[in-house]
Automatic annotation (TrEMBL):
It comes from the Eukaryota. Its main location: cytoplasm. Belongs to the profilin family. It holds the Pfam family Profilin. It is found in: Cytoplasm, Cytoskeleton. GO terms for cellular component: cell cortex; cytoskeleton. GO terms for molecular function: actin monomer binding. Keywords: Actin-binding, Cytoplasm, Cytoskeleton. The lineage of its organism: Eukaryota, Discoba, Euglenozoa, Euglenida, Spirocuta. This is Profilin. CDD domains: PROF (cd00148). InterPro entries: PFN (IPR048278), PFN_euk (IPR005455), PFN_sf (IPR036140), Profilin_CS (IPR027310).
């Protein structure tokens, strides 16, 4: 399975993420992303956010594109934020950050779950 398959099938294909991406921890290069989601410019900020302490994330939130996501939950290697009705879930493995974005609707908790499932799978196979 390619990285793009994880994004298209397991994340966006689940119906719980409107957009998704997998980026590298080392340098923030995009491994795979949803078609039409211009996330490349935000990758350095995402990598930086995932290295911050949960307290710092609660204080600062995360700006992604033109949206400022307020921190709802932050733990070691994970971030969950809201911007109005939109939500963002990110979970970090050893080598990758899995990102799921959802718009309005009851997809928030499920978006978090599918992002964590991919992260857990990557950890299990050494990524």
């Amino acid at each position: 399975m390619s990285w793009q398959d994880y994004v298209d099938t397991n994340l966006v294909g689940s119906g719980h993420c409107h957009y998704a991406a997998i980026i590298g921890v080392d340098g923030g290069g995009v491994w795979a992303k949803s078609e039409g989601w211009a996330i490349e410019a935000d990758c350095p900020a995402i990598v930086e956010a995932m290295t911050k302490s949960p307290d710092d994330l609660f204080a600062a939130g995360l700006k992604l594109g033109t949206k400022k996501f307020f921190t709802i939950q932050a733990e070691n290697n994970s971030f969950y934020g809201k911007c109005g009705t939109d939500g963002l879930a990110m979970a970090c493995s050893k080598q990758a950050i899995v990102i799921g974005y959802h718009g309005e609707g009851p997809t928030g908790p499920n978006c978090k779950i599918v992002v964590e499932q991919i992260r857990d799978y990557l950890l299990g196979v050494g990524y």
